[in-house]
Design a protein that fits this description.
mainly beta, seven-stranded antiparallel sheet, binds flavin mononucleotide
Length: 158
């Protein structure tokens, strides 16, 4: 049976997710994109993954780069989600960030961030499945509620 792509997207959109900004550095340049295809994989060893569109303009920075960070956005960071998914924008313009073990940008105001060393990259069709070994995972603003994405829109879990 054929899967209708429009219906498939509609079905997948019913799965409510958080929203992350995944970051790395390549040749001294910070790189980041909004991603909701993120999940935990393993506690021991600590592994997480995200799925990266093979059309992403800086694909190699993640599939060949050594490390990346996952920033779990708070409900007041919708602007970050928009900024980091807008093609052609200077995504880090006037944005202060810190770095932890790997040098990947850690965004202030996120609910939590996870600093990773690239562990493996697997084939995921038109996406690459990028698995990271967690070097550090910390709550950044522990009281914040997460930004939630459902049916193609940001929503309030409260
Ligand atoms: C809420 C939301 C979730 C997204 N999730 C993903 C994702 O999981 N993986 C991905 O590759 N792109 C995802 N995107 C799209 C990318 O952010 C976007 O295609 C990318 O930043 C485009 O960058 P480019 O124009 O430099 O290629 C998402 C966008 C939004 C708004």
């Amino acid at each position: 049976m054929q899967v209708n792509p429009v219906e498939f997207r509609e079905v997948l959109g019913r799965f409510a997710t958080g929203v992350t900004v995944v970051t790395t550095v390549a040749n001294g340049r910070p790189i980041g994109l909004t991603a909701n295809a993120f999940t935990s994989v393993s506690l021991d060893p600590p592994l997480v993954l995200f799925c990266l569109d093979r059309d992403f303009s800086d694909l190699d920075a993640f599939v060949r780069g050594e490390c990346f960070a996952i920033n779990i956005l708070a409900d007041d960071q919708k602007d970050h989600s928009v900024r980091f998914s807008t093609s052609g924008a200077d995504r880090f313009a006037e944005l202060a960030f810190e770095t932890w073990e790997t040098g990947s940008p850690i965004l202030p105001g996120a609910v939590a961030s996870i600093d990773c060393q690239r562990h493996a990259v697997h084939d995921g069709g038109d996406h690459a499945i990028v698995i990271g070994r967690v070097l550090r995972a910390d709550l950044v603003t522990s009281d914040s509620a997460p930004l939630v994405f459902h049916r193609g829109a940001y929503c309030d879990i409260a």
